[in-house]
Amino acid sequence: MVKSYSISLKTKGNADAIDITDDVSELIKACGLRSGIATLFSPSSTSALTTIEFEPGCLNDFRRLFDEIIDPNRPYEHNKHWDDGNGHSHIRASLEKPFLTIPFIDQTLTLGTWQQVIFIDFDIRPRQRQVILQIIGE
Amino acid sequence: MVKSYSISLKTKGNADAIDITDDVSELIKACGLRSGIATLFSPSSTSALTTIEFEPGCLNDFRRLFDEIIDPNRPYEHNKHWDDGNGHSHIRASLEKPFLTIPFIDQTLTLGTWQQVIFIDFDIRPRQRQVILQIIGE
Amino acid sequence: MVKSYSISLKTKGNADAIDITDDVSELIKACGLRSGIATLFSPSSTSALTTIEFEPGCLNDFRRLFDEIIDPNRPYEHNKHWDDGNGHSHIRASLEKPFLTIPFIDQTLTLGTWQQVIFIDFDIRPRQRQVILQIIGE
Fold first, then answer.
1. Among B50, B57, B110, whose Cβ lies nearest the Cβ of C41?
2. Alpha helices in chain B (DSSP H)
3. What's the N-to-C CA distance of chain C in angstroms?
4. A57 and chain B: CB distance < 8 Å anywhere?
5. Sign (positive/negative) of CA torsion B74, A123, A98, A42?
6. B108 at the C interface (CB within 8 A)?
7. Beta-carbon contacts of residue C74 (< 8 Å; ≥ 6 apart)
8. Mutation for testing the C interface, residue in A77, A80, A129, A130 having most C CBs under 10 Å
9. Which fold, C2-137?
10. Looking at chain C, which runs of residues are DSSP E strands?
């Protein structure tokens, strides 16, 4: 059995991280399946999905990593071609990847207590985003 | 058809990597499904799953990467809030991600010859861990 | 319902990136399933899968990231043991990971307009590769 959903998000860009744990949990409870896997996918080349303890310190530490290893304040070849200034956003997204799969059992995601699901928008401006949630189970 | 299992692990922390290939392979053979996908998920915000050639050189080289790009010996905002000293563990886990999906065909994981499945514990102390294995197939 | 395929690739090595979007899309259209998830897996410890805007600038920027954080021109312990010179290839693959799961709906991958699927070969010589495509759906 396959159930398809879409989660709408408004982001601020620049590594804005949004906690979508409750959105996913509610769709898992509503979808009518008891156990299986939930795959989240962002149809975008400048955003990503992962898990993190959603508190301001961790989020800032995570952003610092990307500022250091994929620094926005240096030249990117992508920007020479397109002049849209988001070359670093693409590379961050390709490293972090735009998908996440989480098992669920008895209609409950198997997340840890301090583990939340985040969508992170690496683009350089506010965006309206759609995340796909594909649920497979029984 | 969905089959749910849990793999128990004792880790040493500090990027201790445990080869769980045999555990997963045995559950795939025992689960009664012929082909499908196996999703491993760590319900934790300080650990991750990936594949590697499981030999001491590769493991040390992999740990060096994390020591360099997410250095434990510098300040993390997470540590200011919680004072638990594992700010770098969280960031490493969010970069590497806590899940892995591997296809299986004829009850056999489609791993390469030199490719093993590892659980890597980035936390700073020994931990008892549970990895979820959700198998979907026919 | 599970459908298993294999995609054959000839690569140049050294972070050669191959756009396999069309291969995957065609197999999704041909497999007979309407909706579900497509899991790509590389049975190798020196290659990976991700998504990127497939244009030369992004690809060069992505390669520069790996050249910087996992520099081929420095010692790796793996090379001391095996003397095959691809220690950095293993670490790049373990960081980037050898799999990707993409939902499909109405026989169409849910990719963004500027988002292509790439296989990236981090090994240091041309290789013949097989990527597994496992499709699960209804």
1. B110
2. 21-30, 56-69, 77-82, 87-96
3. 6
4. yes
5. positive
6. no
7. none
8. A77
9. Jelly Rolls (2.60.120)
10. 2-11, 16-19, 36-41, 47-52, 99-105, 108-109, 116-121, 127-137
Task: Find out whether A20 and A9 touch, Cβ atoms under 8 Å.
Answer: yes
Chain B from 10 to 29: CB within 8 A of any A CB: none
| Residue B39 touches partner A, C-beta closer than 8 Å | yes
Best CA proximity match to B76, nearest among C47, C107, A57: A57
CA distance B94 to A92: 13
Q: Who's near A96: CB < 8 A, 6+ residues apart?
A: A48, A49, A50, A120, A122, B95
Report long-range pairs for C64-67 (Cβ below 8 Å, ≥24 apart).
C65/A69, C65/A70, C65/A91, C65/A95, C66/C15, C66/C92, C66/C122
Q: Which chains touch C (3 or more CB pairs under 8 A)?
A: A, B
How many Å apart are CA C22 and CA B117, to the nearest integer?
A: 29
Give the global pTM: 0.98
Which residues of A fall within a CB distance of 8 Å from C103?
4, 39, 41, 132, 134
If 0-12 CB within 10 Å is exposed, 13-18 middle and 19+ buried, where does residue A21 land?
middle
Helices C56-69 and A56-69, axial angle in degrees (round to 10):
100
Q: Tell whether A71 is within 8 A of chain B (Cβ).
A: no
Q: Tens digits of per-residue pLDDT, C90-127?
A: 999 999 999 999 999 999 999 999 999 999 999 999 99
C62-100 per-position pLDDT tens digit: 999 999 999 999 999 999 987 789 999 999 999 999 999
Closest CA in chain B for residue C76: B61
Amino acid at A19: D
Q: No. of H helices and E strands in chain B?
A: 4, 8
Q: Which residue has the tokens 């939902």?
A: C103
Distance CA C13, CA C127 (A): 7
Judged by a CB distance cut-off of 8 A, whether residue C35 touches chain A is yes
What values do phi and psi take at A25, rounded to 5? Answer: -60, -40
